[in-house]
Amino acid sequence: MAINEKRTITKQSLDFPAWYQDVVREAELAEGSEVRGCGIVRPYGLKIWELIKAELSRQFEEDDIENVYFPIFVPLENLEAEKEHVEGFSPELAIVTHAGGEELTNKLAIRPTSEAAMYKTYAKWIQSYKDLPLRLNQWANVVRWEKRPRAFLRWSEFLWQEGHTVFENEEEARVEVQKMLDVYKATYEFMAIPTYTGRKSESEKFAGAVMTKTVEVMARDGKAIQGATSHYLGTNFAKVFDVKYLGADGEFHFGHQNSWGLSWRSVGALIMVHGDDNGLRLPPNVAPIQVIIVPIYKDETAKEVLDYCDTIKNSLKDKYRVKVDTRENQTPGFKFNHWEVRGVPVRLEIGPKEAAEKKLTVFRRDNGIKELVALADLEKRLAELMKEIHANLYQQALDFSKQNIHRIESWDEIGEQSGWFEASWCEDADTEKLLKEKYGMVSRVLLPDSEQSAPKNKKCFISGREAKHDWLFAKSY
Amino acid sequence: MAINEKRTITKQSLDFPAWYQDVVREAELAEGSEVRGCGIVRPYGLKIWELIKAELSRQFEEDDIENVYFPIFVPLENLEAEKEHVEGFSPELAIVTHAGGEELTNKLAIRPTSEAAMYKTYAKWIQSYKDLPLRLNQWANVVRWEKRPRAFLRWSEFLWQEGHTVFENEEEARVEVQKMLDVYKATYEFMAIPTYTGRKSESEKFAGAVMTKTVEVMARDGKAIQGATSHYLGTNFAKVFDVKYLGADGEFHFGHQNSWGLSWRSVGALIMVHGDDNGLRLPPNVAPIQVIIVPIYKDETAKEVLDYCDTIKNSLKDKYRVKVDTRENQTPGFKFNHWEVRGVPVRLEIGPKEAAEKKLTVFRRDNGIKELVALADLEKRLAELMKEIHANLYQQALDFSKQNIHRIESWDEIGEQSGWFEASWCEDADTEKLLKEKYGMVSRVLLPDSEQSAPKNKKCFISGREAKHDWLFAKSY
User: Do A157 and B99 touch (CB under 8 A)?
Assistant: First the structure.
């Protein structure tokens, strides 16, 4: 089968970022806009995000997390109230200076995240321990001005959800950090993406947090993608915004807070984890079209074939997102390529022979294998296939990531190698800075197993000082 | 039953706008924020919007309308390209002048609506008639700076959907205007709200449109609320943004466009149409909680009653949004009031007698009637009740609106009367301006029946000139 003959998609091995750009364009997922750094998400790309969002919403709802909506504008003085927070975000802010035909006395930032927008109001809502825990989520757009934009992964405006909670004490809040991390891990597994989850280093944590946990994903070029984060904010913001409650002990206490977020970066991760030289490969759970039916006919067999396709479509449409490609002016080969680029998991090829014999040819996008299936067996076989495709994509990604994590004892071993590096580290910020300068990489995550054990090497792989734990290091998007 | 004894809610008859504010606050739907003109929508209020949104999404999906997401920022020069459009919106714009630590060379407006953000890109997507019709929808936040904000109805930032379509010719585009108007009408009927739909006058149409159709709703103080609009844009924007296609005739033609939108104003309309002196009254379709169970017990009967409540909740939870109010430190009377203010359609009151006899007391929020129902009949009775409550709320609103539309022959008859006024009108803009100055009202809608018939009076009710049609006039929110 001659696939992608026009080679509109760069090979991954030649130039991975170019491949990514090509797939985003050719699969009609998104494109740049007139506003530098901002993107336009097209229906096919947005539908993927909506499917991720629906799964995450389902998990939130099951856990009694309610949604809220705060204004997009944050008074600058609120943002400036938490020192580390504003230092982290001020270089990326977009500022509204004029509105309603007048210059504003108090300038407004467009939210880069909503801690500073929400917590003054949280303080009003919370009186006593009976009002806790407060666990709210917001689906919203946020703006962080990007100097080097990249589709989905780094746009100046992006869609995400941000959860903001208040608990009575540190213990409860820390349990929640892990709970939401597990929700995110499950959401990536829903996308057939294996993740590496754990703690961030002091210099890589969220600006204003006491501790950040992260979901890290490996792209097919060996770089890391931060897929979602879950922060323990301690009482840092509570003290600034006066989020306190009257405890059962009759005393006032500051609330212990969390925030946690997952954005449409997840769509970027999905592309970079599963895509191949022919374009997207989508796991069924997040495929806007799960089954594409391509009729193959000549004028004299058109009616018979198209009727058969319609019958099959109707028999599947309650269970699957299914579509018949009825375009008259395109060849079957063009259509095959069209839907392969878009990563549709299953293609049904149906010609007059198939129609006459009540059979069909089933093509799997994940491994390119074709099989002939009797119409009577289709429902059963499709149900199996959807599971097999999901499992295969997950296993491929898992195997790839395992093969590309290299244990090193000294940073000299990095050399020109791609992938992630596991190394025993002293955790001093100066060494992370050196690593960034020399290799363009930083620490990504401290896995729980590594956190609970002594480092494999007593000496730090950079400084030679005493190592604390084994961390993962990588270049990232 | 002593309801709302504290009188935290102003009576509608005393001061309707104060009543509205009180309900929004007491039902915990929303509140003001630190950013003037912007509101915070709390979980109970946002859930109502999400239920409306889900119904509208369902209708869009059924009609193969796909979602898209464009940047929140619009280059000012794009907005300025369509003369009437910019004149209509420029007084309400919020402007970003600084981003990423630098002053922007090209200032950005925050979208007040997205015609000027989308259509340059539409021009790229459309090549030939085969790409048409293009029918896309966007769920987004938009900003129109408000000098006189009002919760849900007029906030500087609001959530909405905006549809933007391109057709080959005027006829198709005009059919679509009505089609989307019918979708909006059905969405209001889903909320048990009767609507008056038809054409807007020249001065009240959308800035940049050839023609606007509107969904008008009557609040319980007799004012009008514009519930949604559907515009025929002609080729006005297409000419500015070069939205053209190669026709089957081998010639290039400009596309005929529509835009149409419904916002969370609909939540404001819902409150103002159904609410009464005790607070909200919600139709079951958009009630965040459809059935509230209030246990009534003493210490010795607590377990028996609470177990019975749980059993009932579990038997209902697959069909209804149901909750048991288990708060220990509140009286049943407090709880009754709490959920009445929030408009929960059905309350189940359950005490030890009910638990022992396998019965329960069912209270309807819409008409205040109580009945005793045997547990065995509950499922059947609840299904009936949900329909009855919806129908009753709809009928009450319809009767109210009919009683409050007054036929007048001269504008002097308006006097101090509230309600809407049907009158034969010359349709000249100068008369509408006079009416606004004298009575604070403008034309709301020309109903289809009136559009197709001669005016009842040959003379205009304001100018005495030749009348063209019978229009509806009202003050509005």
Answer: no
